[in-house]
Please model this.
Amino acid sequence: MLKLLPNFARWSRAAAALTCMATLTGCDLNFWRMDGHQSTMVVEGPVAQEQLNLFIVTVWVTLVIFIIVGGVFAYATWKFRARTEADEHAEPPPQGHGNPLVELGLIGGSVLALVIIAIPTLKAIWFTYDVPAAEKANAYEITATGYQWWFRFEYLTEQATVDASVKTPLVTSNELVIPVGRPIRINVRTVDVIHSFWVPKLAGKVDMIPNRANFLWLKADKPGYYWGQCAEYCGDSHAVMRFRVVALGPREFNDWLDQQLQTARNVAPRPADANRPRPQFASLRSFRTNETGITERFEVDPLASWQQKQAPEKGEDAELVATGKQLFSTKACISCHTVRGHAGAGVAGPDLTHVGARTTIAAGLLENNHEQLQRWIHNPGAVKPGNKMAKGYVDNKITLTAADEAALVAYLESLK
Amino acid sequence: MDALAKSAFLTKDEHVPTQPKLLTHPTTKGGLMSWLTTVDHKRIGFLYGISGLFFLLVGGFEAMLIRLQLMVPNNDLLTAQQYNTMFTMHGTTMIFLAVMPMSAAFFNFIMPLQIGARDVAFPRLNAFSFWVFLAGAIILNIGWFLPQATHGAPDGGWFGYAPLTSKQFIPKHSIDYWIMGLQLLGVASIAASLNFIVTIINMRAPGLTMMRLPVFVWMTLITSFLLVLSFPFIAIALVEVMMDRQFGTFFFEASGGGMPILWQHLFWVFGHPEVYILILPPMGIVSEILPTFARKPLFGYPIVVFSGACIGFLGFAVWSHHMFTTGLGTIATAAFALMTMTIAVPTGVKIFNWIGTLWNGNLQMRTPMMFALGFVWMFMIGGFSGIMHSAAPADAQQQDSYFVVAHFHYVLIGGSLFGILSGIHYWFPLMFGRKVSEVWGKLSFWVIFIGFNVTFFPMHFLGLNGMPRRTFTYDSNLGWNAANYIATIGALTLGLGIFIYFVVMVYTYFKGERVGRDIWDARTLEWSLPNPPPEYNFRVIPIVHDRDAFWYEKHHVEEIAKEKIELEKVESAHGGIHMPFASIWPFVAGMGLLIGGLAVSALDSNPAPGMHLKLGLSILGGVVMVIGIYFWSIEGNEGYHLHLDADGNPIEDPHAKH
Amino acid sequence: MSSHAASATIDHHHDPSTSTGIPNKKLLLWAFLASDCMFFGALISTHLIYRLHPPAGGLDPKLIFSPELTSFSTFILLMSSLMMALAVTAIQKGNVKSCRWSLLTTIFFGMIFLGCQVYEFSHFVHERHMLINNSLLGSTFYTLTGTHGTHVAIGVLWLSLMYVRSFKPAAGNPWARSWLSHNLLHVVTLLLALLLTLKVVLGLVHALQTEPTAGAALGHFFGTEFIFLAAALVTYGGLIWFARPRGPVAFSEFNAIDVESMGLYWHFVDIVWIVIFTAVYLLEYL
Amino acid sequence: MSAPTSSVAAHDSHDHDVSKFQIYIQIAMLLAVITGIEIVCVYVPFAKWIIVTTLVVFSVVKFMFVIFYFMHLRWDKPFCTILFFIGLTLACGTVWALLQLFSAEASLPLPT
Ligand code: HEA
Ligand code: HEA
Ligand code: CUA
Ligand SMILES: [Cu+2]
Model:
């Protein structure tokens, strides 16, 4: 039996070599690549950068210790192991009990290593906590509120038009648009359970905790489209509670603001044109529960996709949109949603005033296009388990025909 | 004066009246009844061990489902609900029902043997602890077998952050089971730990001073202290959520001014010491195994002991490092970050001393040694990622990401579990008189070792690449596909490894090679016993002359033999070996808690239908428990005396009292 | 061994059968009390945190608490501690009778404390409208003091069992055979007596408070509580009957450790109250 | 049961017994008096911190008297004291830390 052992070792060595080769020659098993949309290793803002720098310090310190300690450990194991039968039965070695000097030295060394980590840690704690004093004046304040399972963003300093006389702070959801180069101070709040606000490329997370006035700050160094996600377990659909941050240059940001501050857009009625093709919706397709909601086209350049979304859809069908607008009221959508300037003052769901100008819906889960919109309003529960809109469908007994859905989608898409 | 007889233990019921029928002591030595009534610390150890291993499989199965779900993006093997239940139960099961009871198994089985005691200080309390543990385990898991819509297994995460656990957000009873289950597990742990503390402090063999205690015993002691001092906090926290859920109080209810953050503090005041509760016993085990197979004493014994105590103490001052992202403010964050870092020092000391133990040794690479060495490697890596977490700003990116998952599985599996698996291998011959085959043992080690690293190493990268934990699904565009796929393959390998491990153990139990006493040429007292050790453990209580007591005995054979004869004479003059009576009452009391606990958590408090049933059953449970405790207290704690023949077999003498 | 019993003196501070000389039970209790410190630490911190950061519009404890009653019950608890200490000294000297009396007094004081608490709670609920589920103050206050009350109640139960235990007949005593049923009945009678007394006294207090004149109060009291009063008297008779001398008992200075460990628990409950009294009640009046 | 470990201790502890009764009564009186003073203290028009400190000192004194005399720590092996004080210190430390944490500005509850 014992002879099997060396064989086994040889096999496993061979297997290990094979696996390494396979991985290296790229069977796409490149698990060490850390450049995804939510990477904390490729960052775009000073807060995340500070956090990354600190992380790198800890990596180096522990790596050096690991190499030293591990080296000695490996050497000891190798050097003093019993190799032969004779070794096995050798006289026991000297029964030494320890050496206080060695211990003290090692303790001293460990403390030193910790000091190397502690200093940048302390520095970073103060730096990442709040907007640096020098930049305070320039900071832009936003309140982010977590809901099961989506995010609401309130621009405290921007007054949006409701009608000629009434203004309210600007509210959007699930896509947070910020100006590049300005520190953003975000108050994080929640209406229900604990959520967490996390845009890895811009800053580490801060939890949204009931009855607690948390905040964080971040800054985007360059224009971009950043992925974010709720990072505290908050119930059924925690995994799909996502959001986006779009950072724009000052001019673009102001343009965007101007557009947002206006009330919802109305599609100008046009003379009926029998030749113009009406938007076609694929006959209702049943999606798999967790089928991906994002297309590859979108992937290539999300920021460009976002910019495209700002312009009105081509070939809008005013009639259809008008029907949709009607349905939006009659089908009780308004009980939860607000479309500023149109109908509805609901606050249980995301603000939909400019929903057509977003790239994603359902809290970053689905791309905002006809298919996904229709998929969403057809049966939100199938897309996002347990979500509150599905519950609303049950309570309010909302039933939509295919034609209703088409109209609603057209309406939603028109809301730029 | 006759000191033995003076013990309050023996003399109290000096004039035993003829016992009423109800109080006759059970004497069966076999069958179910003997297990329900046993007060023998070794048998109780087995009960803990078997339950722990069983729940390791359960928790492992849950882990496999988790990994299979995450194998590919947008997978729908499990629903969101099922997945959330799965990781909650996986975490809770592994920590409270697998690793802790397996540690308790060693505390029970090994610790009294190592200190030269015949039993623990309070044998019936020990049995009670186990039955309460079992009741807690049953309540925790009962939801699997009940309607999922209204009951279901717990799904609030293993640290059950308020207010998600409130009735408003999870109206199902799943959370009630979680609360009650943990509460009972806490009772069990506190009772058991009090017992161990008294045992270690008071029941040591003569000559066994504290600074001669085997390191495993020291770690048992420190762990027990951590348990009795940390569990109260979670107990109170659980009481508070329970009140919130059942009586509408506002402890964690923001609408009434409550602060849910308080739950996090109360939980982690318990939670952090808890992780040291999970690691210190395996550290003790490894500190036994390394010297044995290096064939030299532990390097720097006093420092290892002291650093263990340090870790335990510091463990109470770092809890907020789990809350770095909750907006503690700069000062608190800095304080907890620095405190957390200091823990690296005593822990490092242990690592250095283990390496020092190997140095100049004569290392015999047997299976337990392989697991122990694996432990040191893996724990070190896990410790390093712990240190990375302690840098609070960096942790803002890592918290609740797979980087944390990687960290704690390195310390929990690579640490705790490896330590326990090595302990099983090490003491198997003592427990069953059979030895695991080296080939199969090493095979299982390598499969587990490789599987483990393949599973969890990539998770570091996943975490840094922004994958949050507790997500039942992920999109394919985030660069997480490869690592998740590999991790799942690794997990299957790991599962295979554990499977082999189990099969080998079962095989060995029935068919393994029989071995004699002390097959490892070990150093501590338990190896001086025949295997399996007799009910009474020690024919004569030994006198301890040195730190590695048995090693000393083996090198001073004649002196010890003479001494033993003397001691035996003295002891038999005092009536021989004193044994505690078996008793059914701890079991009865435990079952009362089970019934009451189930009733309280399973039934609705408001409107009527279930109300009477609930009240009735809760009262029934209470009554059964009180009956158990009442009879337990009046049956008295006297025992009987054993007399041995030359071979160490008890001579039948059923009437021998005292 | 029996020769030993005669050899009289035991050292109550040294048990040679253990490694440290501390009896196992005593050590168990001290370790448990260390753990209990953490229990109450958690409860008290919860209460204090919410007192220091109360919700807007929460209840004001100043308008709710009444220092007179609480001071009284604090005093009572202190006295019960004294009696407990005396009980231990008595049994250590082998003075079973004196120990029994001290135990009974301790139980009695403990019951008064519980009575005060029951009264206080019902007063707060009915008169001051502080419920466990209508305010954060109610939640933390009732949970904290209720947990303490539960500790006292367990203590009373333990004391009662110990008191009854002190009648356990010694071997050879003809009563030994029916001891179990006797014991059970004795316990039940004692507990009944305690509960009935509590009920009656609370009834009396209630009557005195609600009725305008003392006469009316008495009338009301007898009207509603007569049955309970009668039952209570019966149980007292029962207790006296159970306590009649019945030959030698198996309760002596060897049981001192049992009484002493129980005492540790009791005193601890008392000092926890000292802390609660200061932190929860007194500080509110500043 | 383990075998005897140390020689039988000298029986000198009995010297205390005679006076114990007296001691207990005196302490009980003292405790009652302190409680009385405490209640009066609350209404004295001194600065708040003085009164709070006084009250805390008083309850610590009561606490110590009870554990050292009524609970015999004074006459017992010091180990009991150590054991209990481990729990006591940790509990006090944790309570203190929690109160501090919740008083930090960042942790105050939301204004309503
Ligand atoms: C066995 C259990 C165990 C152990 C032993 C540890 C040990 C440590 N843990 Fe870990 N931890 C967990 C179990 C454990 N942990 C669990 C379960 C969680 C997650 C809970 C959850 O969220 O679900 C967690 C989470 C966790 C966090 C929170 C992460 C987050 O959620 O944001 C942090 C933060 O500081 C942390 C830190 C540490 C540190 C510093 C140690 C130290 O004790 C490690 C010390 C060891 C070493 C450093 C290695 C050896 C030392 C040397 C060779 C000396 C020289 C080294 C230096 C000088 C650096 N752990
Ligand atoms: C001691 C504790 C312990 C142990 C041993 C383990 C063991 C394992 N754990 Fe886990 N784990 C935790 C404690 C532990 N875990 C905790 C506390 C959490 C956090 C929970 C929370 O967030 O609330 C967690 C969370 C957690 C997650 C994250 C879930 C999420 O956040 O979404 C994952 C994902 O991969 C995981 C995987 C595994 C795997 C693959 C194993 C493997 O080691 C398991 C190996 C064992 C077996 C496989 C069983 C034996 C074999 C068989 C039964 C035979 C055949 C079986 C098959 C091959 C199918 N664990
Ligand atoms: Cu919101 Cu997770
Ligand atoms: Cu921790």
Q: What stands out?
A: Residues A 146, 149, 195, 230, 232-234, 238, 241 surround dinuclear copper ion (ligand 3) (CB under 6 Å). The two ends of chain D are 63 Å apart (CA to CA). The helical segments of chain D are 15-41, 48-70, 78-103. Confidence is low (pLDDT under 50) at residues 1-15 of chain D.
